[in-house]
Design goal:
Strand content: 35-45%
Distance between the termini: 26 Å
Radius of gyration: 26 Å
Strand order of the largest sheet: 28-29-31-30-32-33-34-35
Number of helices: 11
Number of strands: 35
């Protein structure tokens, strides 16, 4: 049984103006507790099946909705009437183009970031450019240079009336970006308003459209350029060495027009990141706006130049509202909806209409169209339209103590309809690894594995984000060592409590999690029955060399130091391919040939080295996929193989 989706018919539309039928829908029921009867098996297709709709935004006047649609008939942008959902415009896109984001420029223009996979000096890169759609004039234009560039879509300011935009863009692929003013009209002029500065990749403008700040690395220093106003010269105000970054660097989130003040995220005396007002000309704090007593502030929401909310993560994403109107809106939504993750993802300038996303760790979620004035809420989109949420399991936060006394937090999902005793266990480490974390959120892999009868443990091992600088630093130099110990200790915790059968534990993961899975069965084959890795790192020295193309020299050195630690060790000692010939546990290893994060060579090196192993790995290759899946059919193929592999080597029953 699937919940109703208002956009279900749109994929088949090809005629402008064809209506989409909408019906009133009550809020969905929450998932039931894990102690009830065993649910039916949910097809892998249902977990791989995505909503065809993304990048959904209301126009500033609340009268139109834009969405990007990927369907069997191709990719296109659809503009809908927000009141009755009739299709007003439809713009076809090239199959080779990916939509990175969509933004309204006034009420009748759209800016669309398009990216295309290409090569630069033999390396794969993503070239970006801007598409301007003028709904009133019925025109579409590509903005920028004819030559493809990597930095071609960095819009740093849009005039409220949509007349022009400021874009940080490279003149050519070898140049640092300049800032150009684009007239947002067919055949509109453009002119440069800020020359490039060597090393500067990040430009910031205030709300009056004045370029005020630029930052970037050059000759071993982070250089910061600043001007006080439109008539002031841009001057170099700071050159930071690499070892000064943590103490002196801050993240500018908004510059206050007509002053030297700016809102920044900064680590204060408490060691936590808070929202501050800084004097940008002197780089000195003026006032603390908000700091959470336990967690770092991660981002800030502004409205008309003022901060209205700050966001942080404990076991799930949270918000602290600085504006009473926002607080009241969310309180009302929380009273009206049953889900415990509710976010307004887009709203009209006068707050007359909102798009609201609601879901939970046991509900992939929906997007509602909320007519505030008419007090009517209707379902627009289901994120996983084929899943009946009443069959899903409910993850719970847990914590355990690692062997060195470190407190490790994570999440445990138990299969429904089974006693929480002697269960087969899947350890599911996250990617990254540094600064990334799992949280209490919906996860397809977790739900699939729980539905198949497995307990699933997601440990936020040392080095994960969200637990403070000290916990982050505990992961430095601990890849394959202390970080791996945390996974083993998580297994011991689940076994000691009788939840997991110690003879039925496997590790599954992607990216760094894929590495951790491979390393688990190589380092500790006595612990684990099997492992499954998607896009896992297998050679750390090779991946560090590959990553050099993404970093400046200084950033590259800091990344290597983070991986190796102060006491350098031989990365070959913790690289799975170097030990692949010893493999004596079943392994499923998969990779996309177009992966530009963990290159195809990592897969090849491991599988070639494992040819003479006592147990040869099962290989799965996706010719047209990258570091994640673009095509649902390919993801279903991976999930089918994963479920079959686990059923063979670590059956739940």
């Amino acid at each position: 049984m699937s919940r109703f989706s208002v956009f279900a018919a749109l994929c088949a539309l090809s005629v402008v103006g064809a209506p989409a039928v909408l019906a009133q829908k009550a809020a969905p029921a929450t998932a039931t507790s894990p102690e009830d009867t065993r649910p039916p098996l949910i097809p892998t297709r249902s977990f791989a099946s995505r909503s065809a709709f993304s990048a959904i935004h209301l126009s500033p006047d609340g009268k139109a909705i834009v969405t990007h649609i990927s369907a069997s008939r191709g990719k296109f942008l659809a503009v809908l009437d927000a009141a009755d959902h009739s299709l007003q415009r439809r713009y076809a896109l090239n199959d080779d183009d990916d939509v990175e984001w969509v933004r309204w420029a006034g009420n009748d223009k759209l800016l669309v970031s398009l990216s295309t996979l290409g090569r630069f000096f033999g390396d794969e890169v993503r070239y970006t450019r801007l598409l301007l759609l003028d709904l009133a004039a019925g025109t579409s234009d590509i903005l920028g240079n004819d030559e493809p560039v990597v930095e071609g879509d960095d819009v740093i300011f849009i005039a409220e009336d949509g007349s022009y935009a400021l874009v940080s863009v490279q003149k050519n692929v070898r140049a640092y970006p300049s800032v150009y003013r684009y007239e947002l009209a067919a055949g509109g002029k453009r002119w440069r308003v800020q020359d490039p500065r060597p090393g500067v990749w990040s430009w910031h403008a205030d709300r009056n459209g004045v370029v005020r700040l630029g930052m970037g690395w050059r000759r071993g220093r982070l250089r910061i350029y600043y001007r006080s106003g439109p008539d002031a010269d841009l001057r170099l105000i700071e050159k930071l060495k690499a070892d000064e970054i943590e103490d002196k660097f801050w993240d500018v989130v908004q510059i206050v027009s007509g002053s030297d003040h700016g809102h920044v995220l900064h680590e204060g005396p408490s060691g936590r990141v808070g929202l501050y007002i800084f004097d940008l000309s002197t780089r000195e704090p003026v006032d603390l706006v908000y700091e959470h007593p336990e967690h770092d502030v991660e981002r800030v929401l502004f409205r008309d130049g003022k901060p209205v909310g700050v966001f942080f993560t404990d076991v799930r994403d949270r918000a602290h509202w600085l504006d009473q109107g926002y607080a009241e809106t969310y309180a009302q939504l929380e009273r009206s909806l049953t889900q415990n993750e509710i976010w307004v993802i887009s709203r009209a300038k006068d707050n007359s209409r909102m798009l609201v996303r609601a879901g939970s760790e046991a509900d992939p979620g929906l997007i509602y169209n909320y007519d505030v004035t008419g007090k009517r809420m209707e379902v627009l989109v289901e994120m996983r339209p084929e899943i009946d949420i009443t069959h899903l399991a409910v993850p719970k936060p847990i914590a355990y103590t690692a062997r060195d006394g470190t407190r490790i937090h994570g999440y445990l999902t138990l299969p429904r309809g089974r006693e929480a005793s002697g269960l087969p266990l899947i350890i599911l480490p996250h990617g990254g690894p540094y600064g990334i974390r799992d949280k209490l959120d919906y996860d397809d892999k977790v739900q699939l594995l729980a539905n198949r009868g497995y307990a699933v443990l997601q440990p936020n091992f040392r080095g994960s984000g969200g637990y403070g600088q000290d916990f982050y630093d505990l992961g430095v130099g601990q890849i394959g060592r202390g970080m791996q110990d945390d996974l083993d200790d998580g297994m011991d915790w689940a076994v000691a409590r009788g939840i997991a059968d110690p003879a039925r534990v496997c590790v599954v993961g992607g990216s760094y999690g894929g590495y951790a899975a491979l390393w688990a069965v190589i380092r500790n084959p006595e612990r684990y029955r099997c492992a499954a890795s998607f896009a896992g790192v297998t050679d750390w020295n090779l991946i560090l060399k590959y990553d050099r193309r993404f970093f400046t020299r200084e950033a590259r050195l800091r990344w290597r130091q983070r991986v190796e630690g102060e006491e350098e060790f031989d990365l070959d000692d913790v690289s799975p391919y170097r030990h692949a010939e010893t493999l004596n546990r079943p392994v499923l290893i998969a990779q996309g040939k177009k992966d530009d994060r963990v290159p195809w060579s990592q897969f090849r090196k491991f599988t070639r080295a494992a040819r003479k192993a006592p147990v040869a790995p099962v290989e799965l290759v996706f010719d047209e996929e990258g570091h994640s899946f673009d095509e649902p059919e390919n993801e279903q193929r991976w999930l089918d193989q994963l479920v079959a592999f686990l059923a063979r080597h670590n059956p739940a029953d």
